[in-house]
């Protein structure tokens, strides 16, 4: 009798545990939440901190190696490729870029979906909508090519394969500048009468400033590269390197204007709903409707 009671008690306990697990599986459980602006800060802090560490350690411990060029002239500022292409800095830089690429891709796709599902649908005119949709698509694919080019110049160093590294770097520069130009054109289509509030004015002002800075530094980069490569002028490579740093910082700044100014305060949320894991974008105090929510309704 005692054995039967014990067996029934164990079965009841197991049934209760099973019921609790089933009820938990049917609940809406939040597994992970991260602010999109925090994710943007990560994509900014990682490469900046990596560049700083590579620059300082290279300048202190490997000064001759980072200043070495084919002309062997006097230089004081090493290029990004020089400080990130030496060992052990190359391992740190490649690790940082590997960590940096995934958030960049997430932000790129969130940006595309935000434009198509929240911005473009508000456009009334058919021709304006078609033009904006086309520009938004171009912006997205230019962004992806730029990210891929960044990975390319990182993992194919100038010391390992200079011709390939050079071509990928040119691709990065062209796609970066074109991305900025098309993004500004897209803003012009979305705001045909100009910015309507302080947020839009601030975004446009920063984007124009970073684009102008990128154009000016790119011109300087080309001029000083030719002076160094063809004429071997003293400090020409240093000025080239300086322009390269300005290009990199301007590129980061332009991208940050999208997530820090253009986007509303969005959160990236991973949930377990009815036993299924869903990834959503939620706006603070205002849940953004997703396709998954529509299906559940």
UniProtKB/TrEMBL annotation:
One GO cellular component term noted in the UniProt record for this chain: endoplasmic reticulum membrane
Domain CWH43-like N-terminal: 39-265
GO BP annotations, alphabetical order: GPI anchor biosynthetic process
InterPro entries: CWH43_N, PGAP2
Signal sequence region: none
PANTHER family for this protein: FGF RECEPTOR ACTIVATING PROTEIN 1 (PTHR12892), POST-GPI ATTACHMENT TO PROTEINS FACTOR 2-LIKE (PTHR12892:SF17)
Protein name: CWH43-like N-terminal domain-containing protein
Organism: Chironomus riparius
């Amino acid at each position: 009798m005692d054995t039967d009671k014990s067996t029934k008690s164990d079965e009841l306990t197991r049934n209760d545990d099973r019921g609790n697990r089933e009820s938990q599986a049917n609940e809406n459980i939040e597994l992970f939440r991260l602010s999109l602006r925090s994710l943007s800060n990560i994509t900014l802090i990682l490469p900046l901190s990596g560049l700083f560490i590579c620059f300082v350690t290279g300048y202190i411990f490997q000064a001759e190696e980072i200043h070495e060029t084919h002309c062997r002239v006097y230089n004081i500022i090493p290029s990004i490729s020089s400080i990130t292409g030496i060992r052990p800095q190359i391992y740190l830089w490649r690790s940082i870029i590997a960590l940096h690429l995934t958030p960049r891709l997430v932000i790129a796709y969130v940006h595309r979906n935000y434009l198509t599902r929240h911005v473009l649908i508000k456009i009334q005119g058919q021709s304006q909508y078609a033009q904006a949709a086309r520009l938004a698509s171009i912006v997205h694919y230019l962004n992806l090519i730029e990210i891929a080019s960044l990975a390319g110049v990182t993992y194919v160093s100038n010391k390992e394969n200079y011709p390939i590294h050079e071509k990928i770097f040119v691709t990065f520069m062209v796609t970066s500048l074109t991305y900025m130009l098309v993004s500004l054109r897209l803003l012009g289509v979305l705001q045909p009468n100009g910015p309507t509030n302080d947020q839009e004015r601030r975004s446009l002002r920063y984007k124009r400033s970073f684009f102008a800075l990128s154009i000016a530094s790119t011109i300087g980069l080309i001029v000083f590269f030719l002076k160094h490569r063809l004429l071997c002028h003293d400090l020409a490579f240093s000025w080239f390197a300086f322009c390269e740093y300005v290009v990199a910082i301007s590129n980061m700044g332009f991208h940050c204007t999208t997530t820090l100014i253009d986007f509303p305060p969005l959160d990236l949320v991973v949930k377990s709903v009815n036993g299924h894991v869903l990834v959503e974008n939620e706006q603070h105090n205002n849940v953004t409707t997703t396709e998954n929510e529509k299906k559940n309704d």
